[in-house]
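Researcher: I need the complex structure. Ligand is adenosine-5'-triphosphate. Inputs:
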Amino acid sequence: MSAMIEISGLDKSFGSLEVLRGIDLTVRRGEVVCVIGPSGSGKSTLLRCVNLLEQPTKGRIAVDGVEVTDPDTDLDAARRHIGMVFQGFNLFSHLTVLENLTVAQRKVLRRDRAEADRVARENLDRVGLAEKADSMPAQLSGGQQQRVAIARALSMNPNVMLFDEPTSALDPELVGDVLGVMRGLADEGMTMLVVTHEMQFAREVADRVLFMDGGVVVEQGPPAEVIGDPKEERTRTFLSRVLDPTHTGPKD
Ligand SMILES: Nc1ncnc2c1ncn2[C@@H]1O[C@H](COP(=O)(O)OP(=O)(O)OP(=O)(O)O)[C@@H](O)[C@H]1O
Ligand SMILES: [Mg+2]
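Model: Output:
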């Protein structure tokens, strides 16, 4: 069986700024890959290239055997099964939680109301928010809203989930519930590509950790190696800053 995500020779520039430089990455089915690295290293851009929110300057990307960088590919169809969760939750504020989960199912997957509701409730239950179906997003905590955003992505039956710092906008006490949901997904065998600053999560849940800096993958391997015993000086420097609570500068 082919890999879930296959990236080869990926370059991305914004004008003269080279943000990604020759990224090669294969994510196997069921694998959880965490991407770490300083601010501006290209982590979000990498994720956004996978579902073509950014058009690569060069290189090839295939998701679930479909080459998304092929101009003849039906992008809407390819994106349909790529779940994406960002730092902000992007819920529709004028719709209930349940409606937030059913809109795209009905419009994009053409499910009828009963089926969309059933799938939505199933996924709300999965993230521990079954009782919030009729709430408005503003009535939920940030952590609950983020779990709704995850349930919404799951309701589209994704083959792979992309997470871009899903907990970094949350109050510390709300982070654990969201990470718990993500851990559950990983346990169920979901393929996940996760940009995160949560080193403990990466250590415990990732099959592989990628350290990026300056648009290249500097080092990758099992978390115990990349986080526990990094080989590269740049990785060490980054980790000492992230892991040292007395560091007062910007948390990059
Ligand atoms: N649409 C864009 N236009 C121009 N420059 C961009 C654009 N998007 C990103 N960049 C630049 O590309 C570089 C990488 O950005 P990216 O958001 O991928 O970094 P990151 O690793 O996710 O950082 P952070 O940890 O702060 O989220 C940065 O220098 C950023 O300013
Ligand atoms: Mg980013």
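Model: Summary of the prediction. The mean pLDDT is 94.
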